[in-house]
Amino acid sequence: MRTDSPQTIYRKNYTPPSFLVESVELGFDLDPARTIVANRIKLVRNRDGKHSDIELHGEHIELVGVRMNGKRLKPGQYTLSEHGLTIRKAPAKVTLDIETVLAPQENTSLSGLYVSNGNFFTQCEAEGFRRITFFPDRPDVMAKYTVMLRADKEKFPVLLSNGNLIEQGELGDGRHYAKWEDPFKKPSYLFALVAARLVCQEERYTLQSGREVLLQVWVEEGNLDKTDYAMQSLKNSIRWDEQRFGLELDLDRFMIVAVGDFNMGAMENKGLNIFNTKYVLANPRVATDVDYAGIEAVVGHEYFHNWTGNRVTCRDWFQLSLKEGLTVFRDQEFSADMIGTDTGRAVTRIDQVRTLRQAQFPEDAGPMAHPVRPDSFVEINNFYTVTIYEKGAEVVRMMQTLVGRDGFRKGMDLYFARHDGQAVQCDDFRAAMADANGRDLKQFERWYSQAGTPVVKAVTQYDAAAQTYHITLAQSCPDTPGQTAKLPFHIPVAVGLLGADGKDLPLYTDGAAGQGTVVLELTEATQTFHFSGVAQRPTPSLLRDFSAPVVLDYDYSDAELLHLFSHDSDPVNRWEAGQRLAMARLLKLTADVGAGAPLALDATFIAAQRALLTDATLDAAFRELALILPSETIIAERMEVVDPQAIHTARQFMRRSIAAALKPELLAQYQANQTPGAYSPDAQSAGKRALKNLALAYLLIAPQAAELELAQRQFDAADNMTDRAAALAALIHSGAPDGAASALKSYFADFEHEALVIDKWFAMQAGAPGTDVAAVRKLMTHPAFTLKNPNRARSLIFNFCGGNPSQFHAADGSGYAFWAEQVIALDALNPQVAARLARSMDRWRRYVPALQAHMKAALERVAGSASLSNDVLEVVSKALA
Ligand code: 0A1
Ligand code: ZN
């Protein structure tokens, strides 16, 4: 067990830097075993800083020497610790020359400078720059960078860094150099370099202003046939940001580089975005529709950071959501606008709601719950969370709902007018929105400071004689670690009222006006909203478009839900009504499983599913989403005491019942939604494939020879990965061992050299209910498996621990023991990735006692391990606290 306790860092303790950096000149002599970094920093004392010591961060690097204003510093003049270098009593203006040595090829953490497949890459967010050189590695220190790269020309023909290439040439002895200069000031976390054997697709692109820029997508040689979509997405992103927000690319050159070993999705380094290959490489043969959509979203996300994150950055890491929440909101809007239709927009919105419920609500209710702007952390890498990203985006979206789309644009304009080139706080964004629109958003601040998912309880009352309708909304928010007695939030609740014919009634209310939908602003603990001229008892459609990240508690009758499910003009609530119908039944079935009672599914529900499945007036994409039942995780969140086996049995029973009752309709939809002709990832075609493949999955729940043959035929004939992978998954899930075994074999043989496709091969098996711990252990011995590559580790281990609840929660605790082993093994290689896996045990206290005991033992085993990283230690100690 670790005996020291890691330090907690508090937002309230923020102090301005004692010195600011004017310029940085970096020189790299790149060698995988021993890289030498020369760093010349010009510092000036910051009048806001309290003292005259210069504090430079530095970790896992060897200091060769340091000079101040040309003179070598003697040991007494500075102190060197595990965390950095302090130079005592420095004059007001200082030039430091610092030389460090590092071993990139030994760096398995993938933070700082590291080697992947023989090439050099960097990852500096959040605190990776300090693994390269000594520096005030904090986002409120912004400086201009010049970078000289030197490396073997044969092995590393491509040398890239931020900004513009200003010089390059030969050095003799087989080495060459390139010098880069970034014209913009930036924090150290946005620094990047790449030294590699790569090739690029490039294009000159003309901005709306007429200025021409160079766009490049860099990949390994064999992948040049997979860069078109990323390039297209980049061009679309550039155009979109010009049109929607008036924001232009500020550089002459913009590069995307793909790397196979990467901890996250991608990184927005200024002018030199570094991407996980998963979010760059695509062609129809290897990428699914979901992969294509992911590429568009992530390329957009990183590009949009160029303004929201890079031009205006964060003062400190507690403000992370300032850039992440806003940039996720922007990429969500981009993806929705790219589809362009109302249903398309709704489909993206439904996906966002599903992510929130699947991952963010559980986080907000667990031991790692934190506000969108946290008050403290031990390890910042643990705070790249769904709360910071997705809930943060919801908070930004609510501001848009409150001030309107035009008002939001005004707020963005004011934000940039005020803060371009600065490192600021979440409050500054909110202030810009408020000031640009003359709105009071003071109470809205609580969305940033209070953790937990609010519950909004609605009660309605209709007075037929007076023709009035009253909606009373009461809000509350559960306690979260360190926070009790929450104050009311400012919650926009979009509402419509449906008449008996299913149409929206005209709305006459105090304080809010709207045709079919009004936005009620709930600011008190309890508030009643009045509607007049309501000629008939309406069915309320509450929280339209999921206007706030809350749990809506309203006692809908089945009849009301069926009415909304068939008619609501708001597609998100139409979907929601279906989810509520299903959830009520799933909870009842789960209870029945627990009680050993017989299971049954009512004809009304089946009829509603049938009507939806066969309604050709609805987009296929919408039908597919509406037919997906709430996941086992989402069901678990609704229960006091979680019995994962009972949930699994109940949900499987419902799936089997639907499959049995709707077999002819499923087959008909399977045929009707074929997409002949050349593959295209557009939303229409992708929606059809999704519905077709959902039908296939249902048809293979209890397959006969004909269904197995259908899947096999699709698998063999598919000209695209979406259909091929769906057929393979259906075969695996069908439990028909022979069909799956030979398909798995041929799939592996076909794609052996496509790492991302092999990730899918592992992932599909890891998530199948037939795959137990023993099977996962066996897969780990496969020659293609390695813990060192994060994508591969995630594909097998994360997908098992997080995506296969009925096996992970095996009664004997073997899943948890496996989890503990893997967390410990991963931690020795890559603490960031290990800490993410550690999170799979967050909700352990909610499980049935027998499982809880096993989970606790596994957590304690990890917590007691000898040399744990701060990353994992924070997660497991919070879980056990
Ligand atoms: N800023 C990136 C996410 C990111 C964060 C940390 C990383 O390494 C530890 C890498 C990427 C984004 O939002 O895309
Ligand atoms: Zn981001």
From TrEMBL:
The enzyme's first-digit EC class, named in words, is hydrolase
As its record notes, the protein acts as a catalyst of:
Release of an N-terminal amino acid, Xaa-|-Yaa- from a peptide, amide or arylamide. Xaa is preferably Ala, but may be most amino acids including Pro (slow action). When a terminal hydrophobic residue is followed by a prolyl residue, the two may be released as an intact Xaa-Pro dipeptide
The Peptidase M1 membrane alanine aminopeptidase domain sits at: 229-447
> By its UniProt entry, which InterPro entries does this protein fall under?
Aminopeptidase_N-like_N, Aminopeptidase_N-like_N_sf, PepN_Ig-like_sf, Peptidase_M1, Peptidase_M1_dom, Peptidase_M1_pepN, Peptidase_M1_pepN_C, Peptidase_M1_pepN_C_sf
Q: Name one GO molecular function term.
A: alanyl aminopeptidase activity
Query: Family, per the entry?
Result: Belongs to the peptidase M1 family.
Protein name (record): Aminopeptidase N
Originating species: Janthinobacterium fluminis
